[in-house]
Amino acid sequence: MAETNLDIDTHPTEDISVRDVFGIDTDMVVKGFAERTSRVPELDSTYKFDPDTTLAILAGFSHNRRVMIQGYHGTGKSTHIEQVASRLNWPAVRVNLDSHISRIDLIGKDAIKLKDGKQVTDFQEGILPWALRNPTAIVFDEYDAGRADVMFVIQRVLEVDGKLTLLDQNQVITPHPYFRIFSTANTVGLGDTTGLYHGTQPVSYTHLTLPTIYSV
Description:
alpha/beta; Rossmann fold; 5-stranded parallel β-sheet; two-stranded antiparallel ribbon; 7 helices
């Protein structure tokens, strides 16, 4: 991901009226980026915003809060976050925490590359270190389906000033001031109590107390 770094010096400069942009009866004003990049989700001009959910997501962007949106399938949890990000010109990436996502996928791994005609071992950064270094929002979909070893990697960065330690590289990554993190889930972290979501599992209490959970 290193070759797709965003401008780390950019920051939100535009005042965005929540009433004018999202159609919500409030005087709240949030900051957004002046320019769109290729990482900003595509805007859907017909999207209708649920007021309470929108305000929770905006609080995440504006005040660097960790927000988890919980609800049934098809209720637009991830899309809602993307459409808010689109109107703020805030870069965002989605990661689906299915059973095939491993710690290596998030953190990175050593890869063999050709350099000056010779094979060398080089560390290939994963999506999480990349996101932490950049002014971007990362959205973890299917939060309640993530493997335990993967969830404990995420736990440290759930804190507002959560730093990520790369043991293999002897690095400690400090989050960019405008790094944001969101998650979506079908259950409230207690496993599938309805029989509708086979494959979900109970989530460690520590992974539920750090984000603010909002149900839709």
